[in-house]
Amino acid sequence: MIRFFIIPIVCLLSQVWASEGRKPNIILIVADDLGYADVGYHGCKDIPTPHIDSIAHRGVQFTHGYANAAVCSPTRAAMLTGRYQHRFGCEYHIGQFRRSPELKIGLPLEEKTIAERLKPLGYATAMFGKWHLGGEVLQDRSIMPSSRGFDEFFGILEGASLYDDVKNRERKYRRGYELVDGEPEYLTDAFGREAVSFIKRHQDKPFFLYLPFTAPHAPRQIKPEHMEKFKHINPLIRRELVGMVYSLDQNIGRVLSTVQEVGIEDNTLVIFLSDNGGKPNDNGSLNHPLRGQKTQYYEGGIHVPFCMMWPGKIERETKYHNPVIGMDLFPTILKLAGGEIKPDWDIHGTDLMPYLTGKNEGRPHETIFWKSNKHYAVRHKDWKLVKQGAQMELFNLAEDLSESNDLANKHPELVQQLLKKYHAWDSQNIPPSFGHHPSIGEKIERVPR
């Protein structure tokens, strides 16, 4: 296993930064349903992604970077709280069925987001993009972003929306708690605009900017000029995906340029990842060489583009090969901001900075778990057990990243060892609080927007 090498200058700079007491700015950028093979730094040839690639090349690429789930909502619950989402009932998407009347249809109030933890540390906070953690079913303001630690919010509560809803006819675009009359810009551009404005207005104090774009999640809507620019790309579904990711990358470029222009780049950590893998038949994305797709626990559903940069603190062109996962961002960000993690928070993520500076040469995680209903996966070191449907499969990811060689029959004892680990972990989870299936509990009638 290739490990990070210790970089003395990084350690020295980190000590200088800490001694000066300057809190870093944090920008967390999330793509939606982006395929593993849809970025240039993973070898993509038909989508220009120079700005995403610049984050990867100017910092660290997590070659085994994972999302906490194979779908949108549960991933976000884990990422923003630092905890396995199964511990607090957010195993499924937001839906109209609820296990019992006292439960929120969304992120429980007891679970504090990273934004809620950063505000007492002096951070300005903002979110522009897709929430997907509750509020839309009952119009419950208590679980909307503006009640969960974000000073500013512009975006959608739901899992998807139109990209060109000039008059907000879907009634999904919001600012704060309120629906807006409309949005003249292509939605990806609007999120970029809001992010640029926030950075300029808060350049003189520490800020946390959460930028979860909706792109390239369906519906497949591309700007007309990009339809023309990429007219040589076929089939149409791929051309639409290319245009949507190109817009995503352009707006990430706007954010990075603004950080440079206002002179705060050396004190700003920028993180980029996708919330899950792509779904080729739905949005034209590609996950090769990985097997599987969104909704599945094969690598293609959960192994995602994941990188971060911090000039002067993280060495350029670094690759970190041990597994990391989205929920690691909570403790990483909080520690950098000068916060402390209390034992009773039961945080499952790991602060990544000691591993990136070489202070800790071990693995952030020996074992990682995924679960949705009866489907699950366990990764322990380089071994991965997958139960997708009725089949139980075992893979050695160090030798078989594409999961093409099932070794379950060859290593039945290892299958049992991993099953034991999974059941011990799962015994600490609670039943899903909400979802789309009637088996969960009572059906809730939606409150009109």
UniProtKB/TrEMBL annotation:
Keyword Nucleotidyltransferase belongs to the record: no
CDD domains: ARS_like
Domain Sulfatase N-terminal: 24-338
GO molecular function terms noted in the UniProt entry: arylsulfatase activity; metal ion binding
Keywords of the record: Calcium, Hydrolase, Metal-binding
Family, similarity comment: Belongs to the sulfatase family.
Listed name of the protein: Sulfatase
